[in-house]
Amino acid sequence: MTSSPASRFVSNGKRNASPRSPTNTGELFTPAHEENVRFIYDAWQCVLRDLASSSDRSERGPQQYVEKTTNPGLNTFTPVDLSDVKRRNTQDSKKS
């Protein structure tokens, strides 16, 4: 599987039930937030499993979408480490 910044995930909309995962960060998340995170995580795990088990690419299953032409506006895009941003914001709020 090749990585592309223009990849998109398409789901069949099925939601799988999974146990709640405890957080050790001390943050409180709403049940709706936790459900959304579980749904995305479970859906992605299904895609990874299906990609790994799919030997014949002609069968119906997950397919990676790749833009045929890249968006020139994204040429200077730099990914952001959200954990770092959150850590800096937390430190800034403690200073004030």
TrEMBL record:
Main subcellular location of this protein, as a coarse class: cytoplasm
Signal peptide: none
Ranges of compositional bias, category Basic and acidic residues: 83-96
Positions with biased composition (Polar residues): 1-27, 66-78
Record has Nucleus as a keyword: yes
GO cellular component, one term: cytoplasmic stress granule
UniProt protein name: Mapk-regulated corepressor-interacting protein 1-like
Gene name per UniProt: Mcrip1
